[in-house]
Specification:
Elements: E1 17-18, E2 20-21, E3 24-25, E4 29-30, E5 33-36, E6 38-39, E7 50-51, H1 58-64, H2 71-87, E8 92-94, H3 97-106, E9 110-116, H4 126-136, E10 140-143, E11 149-158, H5 164-189, H6 194-197, H7 213-230, H8 235-247, H9 255-259, H10 266-274, H11 279-287, H12 302-321, H13 335-347, H14 356-366, H15 371-395, H16 400-407, H17 417-427, H18 431-450, H19 465-487, H20 490-510, H21 518-536
Parallel strand pairs: 1-5
Antiparallel strand pairs: 2-3, 4-5, 6-7, 8-10, 9-11, 10-11
């Protein structure tokens, strides 16, 4: 908001500022407001001015006037009181960290209280009632020991407990009205088949330049068909994935989702199940938006994972194709969140390989790109997704150099990124790894500086025994490394590299790579390229930063 001529913008107009150093006012002005020693307590109580004699009084004076400045203290107070209130009905409060944080930041003096829900709440899907409690009332659910919703909730008043019974009745009245609305919408929606709503998606804009939600649905159906072949799905799985893609956005037209947008997908799955769609279809439709945020639960079904991935890939590819850019804090279409979701799912896969680059290319071709242009745009999207992985790995405690080393591996091996990083982290202090890193850096520098064009290695051009030994060692190691990459035995791969290192050291001690004879020189460069490729199949060791002890 802005409120005066300087154009300063803030979440709300600034009406007063306190700036004290010990007992003295630090005088300055900002956005037309001068500093002083006057402040106010909880705004809803028509607060009187509070004059602060010195800075040390601030926290205590504010608390006396029903403002708890510490968000951590407000959170602990809310949690403790919510537990206590829930225990009165043999329940416990249920909430996510983000939801509790929202409540804590909406209140200056939180006072949780127990309120009840009428029986109508149990005539509709639990998610509707939960959405009313959390989304509309900014309150907490109460559940039993099995996580089932109880006919109570915890409201959080901003202020003292005075007249709390009046507040409770007000909350209960609003919840009852909202639940009756939800029940009416739900009963009306059940009268209409999801399939009949798909055509109406033509009236819902997806993204400027990318048409409507109906256009997106059509792309998802095509992509689901293509993906089925790539992922070797059975005939039944293919049919169900395509079906779930065709119904995936239909619930956007329903009354419940229009009233409770956060239930998109969830309600689609419920309606699909009620209308007799296969269990796989209902589950996939329900899980398509997961994960919605970092740390959120992932889709639990195979088709749910695949639908979620292709939906997010279509969104990212489409946005990139019409020039949407993500920069700094600007991400109006949630592309970072979509990218994070894709990589969270892919990295949770049990297999070491997932053909994400091929799926991206298929999505771009469906968007109308030519083969060559799709390949170029694919690289841009792959780099965007790798940046999402970079953040995930750093959050898990991996150093930047280790992250850089594993991200050099093609993105299709993303399910193995964390395991590879863990092995490197385990060995990072070992002397042998230091020597391997130095060798890789040396090989990389030689290849980059040579500027030569060289073909395959020709064993007939070997003149030194150490050339032959290195060539044989590479050839023998390649098969073993390939087998262990497939099985995910990365410790064994490190053992192979350790055994390989003495042969590499002998080569550099006794062989002059940049020989005067061009054929010999290029052959030795080709040999080093094969050596670098062998290491790069696991990680770019030259990217690691290690120091001698």
């Amino acid at each position: 908001m802005h409120w005066e001529d300087s154009g300063v913008r803030f979440v709300r107009p600034i009406r007063g500022m306190v700036a004290l150093l010990d007992g003295e006012v630090v005088e300055f002005s900002y956005a037309g407001v001068k500093t002083g020693r006057l402040t106010y307590g909880l705004r809803i109580d028509k607060p009187k001015p509070i004059e602060l004699k010195n800075a040390g009084e601030y926290f205590a004076k504010m608390r006396e006037n029903y403002v708890i400045l510490s968000s951590d203290e407000r959170r602990k107070l809310t949690e403790r009181k919510a537990r206590s209130e829930s225990e009165k009905v043999n329940g416990k409060p249920s909430y996510s960290f983000s939801h509790l944080t929202e409540i804590v930041n909406l209140t200056e003096y939180p006072t949780p209280f127990l309120a009840s829900i009428d029986k109508e709440a149990f005539d509709i899907p639990e998610c509707i009632t939960a959405s009313i409690i959390e989304g509309h009332m900014k309150s907490l659910k109460v559940v039993d020991e099995k996580g089932r919703l109880l006919p109570y909730f915890i409201g959080v008043r901003n202020g003292s407990s005075d007249f709390i019974d009046v507040v409770r009745k007000g909350y209960e009245k609003v919840v009852k009205a909202r639940i009756l609305d939800g029940k009416f919408f739900f009963e009306e929606d059940k009268k209409t088949k999801l399939e009949s709503l798909v055509e109406k998606l033509s009236g819902v804009v997806f993204l400027k330049g990318l048409g409507t939600m109906k256009d997106k649905t059509d792309r998802l159906v095509k992509l689901a068909t293509e993906v089925s072949g790539i992922l070797s799905l059975t005939k039944e799985e293919k049919e169900n994935l395509v079906r779930s893609a065709s119904l995936s956005k239909a619930d956007l037209i329903t009354n419940v989702v229009r009233e409770f947008p956060e239930l998109q997908g969830t309600m689609g799955g419920i309606y699909a199940k009620i209308q007799g769609e296969p269990e796989q279809v209902a589950a996939a439709v329900s899980e398509q938006y997961l994960p919605r945020f970092s740390g959120d639960k992932l889709p639990q079904t195979k088709l749910g994972k695949y639908l979620s991935i292709i939906d997010k890939i279509d969104t990212i590819c489409g946005a990139f194709s019409v020039g949407v850019k993500v920069s700094g804090s600007k991400d109006p279409f949630g592309l970072r969140r979509a990218g994070n979701g894709i990589m969270q799912i892919v990295m949770s896969e049990e297999e070491n390989f997932f053909p994400i680059s091929e799926i991206i290319e298929k999505a771009l071709l469906i968007l109308g790109y030519g083969k060559k242009e799709a390949g170029e745009k694919k690289e841009e999207i792959v780099q965007f997704l790798k940046e999402r992985v970079r953040g995930v790995l750093k959050e898990k405690g991996f150093a930047s150099d280790i992250v850089n080393a594993v991200l050099s591996v093609p993105i299709d091996f993303a399910p193995s990124y964390e395991s590879r990083a863990s092995v490197l982290k385990k060995h990072i202090e070992e002397e042998t790894l230091l020597l391997i890193v130095l060798s890789n850096k040396r090989v990389k520098n030689i290849l980059e500086k040579s500027g030569a064009e060289f073909g395959k290695v020709n064993p007939d051009l070997f003149f030194e025994r150490d050339e032959e030994n290195l060539y044989s060692a590479i050839s023998e190691s390649r098969k073993a490394i390939s087998e262990n990459l497939q099985s995910g035995n990365y410790e064994k791969i490190m053992e192979i590299f350790y055994v390989l290192h003495p042969v590499i050291a002998q080569f550099f001690d006794n062989v002059l790579v940049m020989d005067e004879d061009e054929k010999v020189r290029n052959n030795r460069l080709a040999l080093l390229r094969e050596l670098k490729r062998l290491f790069d199949e696991f990680a770019d060791f030259s990217a690691l930063s290690v120091k001698k002890k």
